[in-house]
Amino acid sequence: MLSNGAKHLVLVSRKHGGKEVVLSNHFNCTDHDLAGVVVEYGDISTRAGVDEILGKISSFGMPPLRGVFHMAGILSDGTIPNMTMEKMDVVWRGKVDGAWALHAATSHLNLEHFVLYSSATWILGSPGQANYSAANAALASLADYRHRLGLNATSIAWGQWGDIGMVRDLERKVFGVNPFSTARGICTMEHILRNVTLIGNNVMAAELSGDVTTSWITPHIITPSNDHEEIITDSNEQNENRLDNLEQSVAILVAKMLRFKDPSKLIDKDLSDIGMDSLMRIELRTKIITRYNALVDVSDAETITDIVQLLKKALKETKLS
After folding, report:
1. For the Carrier domain, which residue ranges apply (predicted)?
2. Which of 167, 162, 199 is nearest to 183 (CA)?
3. 11 pairs with which residues across the strands?
4. 177 contact partners, CB below 8 Å, separation of at least 6
5. Which residue from 132, 49, 45 is spatially nearest to 93, judged by alpha carbons?
C-alpha cells in the first residue's frame, strides 16, 4: 500500500508490541516511509471494539477512512467428532464476528475497498478444518451481501502463502494448492483490486496442485506446478524402499494420506488430532491388507505405534498359521 501511494496506514493487532517490532519482519521501509503508519491494539470481534479503534483513528487527525482490509484469522483444528463449540467460537470470533463488526461500523462510509482475506479451504476443503472453512464461506457471503446493499466488498479466497502466514511452517502439504511467494501474492492482490469490476466480489487466488482436476474452478493465480508434490512422493517412496522398520513404513502410508511432509513426526501423534477420520481409517486398513496381507482393525488405534503393534501381532499369527 505504501509503495502504491498510501500516506496513512493503521495496523490493528490483538498482540501488543512496539511499531518497530510489528513492522521489522515485514517491511523494508525507511523511517520517512513509516511516518504515516500507526499500530493500534484492540479487539475487532465486537462492534464496541471496532468503534473504539475508529475513534482513535479520528483522534490522530488522519484523513477520512478510505479502505478496510480484514486479515484476522486463527486455527483450532479438529475432526468432526472433536469439533466443539469452543473450537468453532475461537475461529468464528475474529474472522466472522470481526468482519461483521467492521461492516456494521463502516457501512455509512464511502470506502474504496472493503477487502476480506478468506481462504481456499472453503472451496477445496481441508482435513480437520470444518470450522475454518465455514468461517471463510461466511466472508464470501458477507461480500455478496454488501454488494446487494450497493457497497464495495471483495472476498479473496487465498491459497497457500509460502513465506508468511499461518501455514508457513505447516508440516503437511495443503490440499489442492501449491505455495506461492509473497511478492507474487501482493502482485495478485493488486491485480484483483484494480480489476474488481471484471473479476467480481468473490475470487480464489491460489496455485492449484495436481489434487484438483475439476474445470469449474478458475483461480487468478494460475500455472500450478506439481514439482513439489513429485519431489515429496519420490522421496517418500525412496525412503520406504530403504526402510525395513515397520513403524516408519506405516508412518509413510499415513503421511501420504494426510499429506504430511515428514513421516517421522507422526509416530506419536494422535491420529484423530492430525485429521484421520473414520473413512480414512477404512482406507488405511485396506492399504495395510494390500501391502502386508494382514487383517488389522485400526478403527480404535490412537497412534501409529498402536497400529504397528496390531500389525506385528497379525503378521506373527499369519506366520504361525
Report:
1. 244-318
2. 162
3. 39
4. 120, 124, 159, 160, 206, 207, 208, 209, 212, 224
5. 45
Rounded to the nearest 10 degrees, how much is the dihedral formed by the CA atoms of 28, 32, 33, 39?
90
Shared-domain flag, residues 244 and 183: no
Tell me the mean pLDDT in the region 65-69.
Answer: 92
Query: Which segments within the chain are labelled E, that is strand?
Result: 9-13, 37-41, 67-70, 113-119, 154-158, 177-178, 202-205, 207-208
R_g over Cα of the chain: 23
User: Mean per-residue pLDDT for 160-184?
Assistant: 68
Residue found by looking up cell 475470487 in the block: 203
The three cell numbers locating residue 41: 491494539
CB-hemisphere CA count at 13 Å for 233? 7
The CATH number assigned to the domain holding 106 equals 3.40.50.720
Which range has highest mean pLDDT (210-219, 230-239, 302-311)? 302-311
SS3 105: helix
In DSSP terms, 67 is beta-bridged to 113
Beta-carbon count within 10 A of 97 CB: 20
Q: What is the largest CA-CA distance in the chain?
A: 84
Per-residue pLDDT at 122: 84
Angstrom distance (rounded) from CA 157 to CA 308? 39
Give a yes or no: residue 158 inside a domain: yes
pTM, 2 dp: 0.63
The mean pLDDT value for 173-202 works out to 75
